[in-house]
Amino acid sequence: MKVDVLNERRSGKFAAKTIALLFAGAASLMVLGLSANPAHAAARTFVSGTGTDVGTCARAAPCLTFAYAHGQTDSGGEINCVDTGNFGPVTITRSITIDCAGSLGGISPGAADAITINTAGVVVRLRNLSLNGIGAGFTGIRFLNGAALFVENCTIANFNGGGPGQGNGVVFAPPTGVTAELYMIETVISSNGHASDGAGLAIQPAGSGSARVAIDRTRIENNTFGIFADGSGSTGMIAAQIRDSVVSESKLNGITALTVAGASITSLTVERSSSLLNGGTGIQSQGSGAYVTLADSTVMSNVTGLSASGGGNIFSYQDNQLSGNVSDGALTAVLAVR
Asked: What is the reported pLDDT for 38?
């Protein structure tokens, strides 16, 4: 099942090691992907709801759109918001930060993706943004190439437009030959998807691409699928840690790890997190090479609590809560707490 056809340790040492491995590459990645700057570019630019897309987007004369300000900003530079506004969709082609602290800058893109990232080696940080598809938007953030994406204190909601492959909060899809990293913290992803496809967060590398993902203190609510890690289209690897987060009220499944024979190992660690009130399965692991490890987590009030099929695996450190589901389902193995 692909996104475009979506139909679904307690050990502090382990968690720390996982996060350390994920973040160790981030510092070195910051050196990558700094594309050549325009001669007139500035290290910091500004947008305003009453700005105009002329000049260099200085603080005294801010621009109107993220797209125009992007072109005036150095690689490694930053765009800030003077005030609130709809700053329009943007395709990011250089390492950059967009930070709207104090104003929560918005993008309502119409029938389009709000933010697209599709340039080798770039490191992108998105902070304090409100992305609202208002029912027509396709995908909030679509990552198709780059080194790393940081999503911090953002809201991504109501992306329900387009056909198959659209209707997603975030799509993280590193291409062949690329191992990319996604870091998400204190973010809300809500009300995205169509009747039977689309996800709050879809992790879907392609070719030989690999995804390294760390999700922390994030709520993924009322989407068609919640978190959908799909390794069926890649021979790389998906390794994701979901920590101190809630996935709830998905129309279908809450958290899914999917792969097929010969494709990616798809491994999710769910720690101190909950999958609740989902219309399908709380935790699903499908296909040989799909692994979900649960530590100090809650799976409750779903139609099915746990489902492992086709050789998929669900492991528990024996400190989880599994109850109140129509059918609780079963683990494939329990692990020693060490």
From this structure: 56
